[in-house]
Amino acid sequence: MSTHAVTTCLLGLGVTVMCEMATAGETLRTYPAPEGEPASADYKVEANGQPVFVYQAKVRQEIAKPPGSIWTHDVGCKAEVASLAYFDFEGAVQVAVTPARLFKSATIHPLSFGIKPAIEGQTIRFALDRPRKLAILLDGSDRHALHLFANAMETDAPRPDDPDVLYFAPGVHKIGATRLQSGQRVYIAGGAIVRGQILPDEQPQLSKRTGLKHYGGASLHLDGVSGVRISGRGILDGADMPHAARNLILVANSRDVTLEGIILRDSPNWNVCIHSSERVAVRDLKLVSGRLNSDGINPVNSRKVEIRDCFIRNHDDSIAVKATRPEGDCADILAERCIIWNDWGYALGITYETRAPIHDVVFRDCDVLTALFAPLGVYMVDSATVSDIAFENVRVEATRDKFIRIAIGHDMWATDPQRGHIRGIRFKDVQFTGKGAPSSEIKGFDAEHVVEDVTFTNLRIEGKAIGSAAEGRFSLNAHTKDVRFSAE
């Protein structure tokens, strides 16, 4: 653990005691932002008449392609500024959102929640009776959206003086790559912002493949530990680190880990990487990042990983199961009740690095607001076998390219000389609910490396039941076998 991290996390303990002790009968809790944190100029939010601070969040950052690098982002580069706000409640809450600009209509996503707001003058009003993670769009545009996280009340916040807790009180804290110990808890209180830093004595390594500079570790780094929990309501922020520097959270060679409740903002690289680990529970995380390579939550060569009730907006693959090493299957992975807004990449699936078997993966009851390449995908470029993958009760609102892509290919991310196999892929009760029926594709690599045994049960596009590849606008090449469509 870095000394810098320990010093900064102790600031503001007296404030924490006042803010975090819930009063009897409390049904709404809001969190003041740290002093100096810029507020969004685009929205004002109230919950039961109480003001809720609205943060800025950069998305869709401008991409540069300097010589020797495939892509990068300059520090301070142009970006779309979106907004985010959060509060906790119990029972029911009345929410009022007042945009700064004039508008005619507003939609609240996911659409499957069925939240129909009332517009009174220039204020959007709606009620919630359960925790929700929402995106609010004006006049049908997804630019400068409001991300609103209405959380359940916290019931087990630790005491600031607990010796087993690395406690970040309300305020701003700066940390380098911080190693955690077995049995330790990290708590980021509501109203806290923990800013990851590259310390002056750190030297980067240059990737020969991408030309990008990487630093070791992660802002919160778990390696070879067990029984660690990271929780809270505050923000872990990567804005001060250059593009591709490091992950915000890395769980490596560890077990019995829980990540829950916090917000991750502006990650310079993958938000959460779970590598060579087992029994990892990820719950109720909220991610908003706008830089390339800011993958959301990636289980890599890991087993028994559960990802539930998360909101992910990012600029690369959102929940992507991978195997970057030939040792260790990636198996028994569940992603459930997650909301995905993908600005660049795949929303849900198995993607690219596939150097060890990947099997028994389920994506269930998720909403995809949009994705650039494909909302649902199994795309492999290495030599392993990907099998027994299920997409169940998934709703897709929009895509800017394909709807579903299952393919064996070869690109810059491949390291194995041979290609692999895809078999046993199941889609059940999957819907495309948007407008303009998109195309899909299923493609093997060659006669020895095929995609086989793919079933679609109750697939619907724009409300229409799909009974064949042609009806669903699926393109299949000669290296596919046993692709079936049916209804129950």
How would you concisely characterize the structure shown here?
The protein is mainly β.
Query: How many E-type strands?
Result: 48
Strand content: over 45%
Distance between the termini: 55 Å
Q: How would you characterize the largest beta sheet?
A: 12 strands, parallel
Mean pLDDT: 94
Tally of individual domains:
2
Overall geometry comes to: globular
Determine the fraction of residues in helical runs and give it as a percent range. under 10%
The CATH architecture assignment of the largest domain turns out to be 3 Solenoid
SS-derived structural category? mainly beta
Going across the biggest sheet, name each strand in turn: 12-15-20-23-26-29-32-35-38-41-44-48
Name the CATH superfamily classification of the largest domain: Single-stranded right-handed beta-helix, Pectin lyase-like
| Cα Rg | 22 Å
Number of helices: 2
Poorly predicted parts: 1-22
- CATH first level of the largest domain: Mainly Beta
Multimeric organization: single chain
Topology-level CATH name of the largest domain = Pectate Lyase C-like
